[in-house]
Sequence to fold (221 residues):
Amino acid sequence: GQNIDQPTEMTATEGAIVQINCTYQTSGFNGLFWYQQHAGEAPTFLSYNVLDGLEEKGRFSSFLSRSKGYSYLLLKELQMKDSASYLCAVKGNYGQNFVFGPGTRLSVLP
Amino acid sequence: GAGVSQSPRYKVAKRGQDVALRCDPISGHVSLFWYQQALGQGPEFLTYFQNEAQLDKSGLPSDRFFAERPEGSVSTLKIQRTQQEDSAVYLCASSPGNEQYFGPGTRLTVT
Fold:
């Protein structure tokens, strides 16, 4: 089967750092993606990891360990506008099948 | 440039009615995906097209769901004899390679 786990909700303070974890068990692996989704809006692409290690992009970084089936998204210098759901998605071996996790709803407090 | 567009943005259907949801992908994107997203959940894969070919429809929940992309551009997701459990946001995404670009979605409410 295919399974992706993320914490349901997280809360952090403006200016702080937060780490959102994602663990996965999927049929094959061809990349892990993080998306941001504000309430009532479409998901927007944040990052892509296919090899182990850390990918940094401005205030956002994403880490992957394929042997552990584990990834995290690190958000630095949190801003109020970062309050959103963060979706972890894995691209499997078959065709273009993407499996999304349930999402982590992040609330940034002043 | 223009992103992925979907229409209608909102659709209310009575149980048993047929509905058609439209997706206009980003020009030149070969891959097109349909997802169903329930409130508070992540998107669930429905089907995938590469140009006009529907290569994966393993996520379609029943034979009431049908998708097409006849000319390899615009796609339509049709749901026949809608049921209350079909109420969800239907997202379309197009992709030039790896990352997907999502449309705003169609919120379907079946009463």
In short: Chain B has a mean pLDDT of 94. The CA atoms of residues 68 and 97 of chain B lie 21 Å apart. Chain B touches chain A at residues 4, 31, 33, 35, 40-45, 48, 50, 55-56, 58, 91, 95, 98-105 (CB under 8 Å). DSSP finds no helices and eleven strands in chain B.
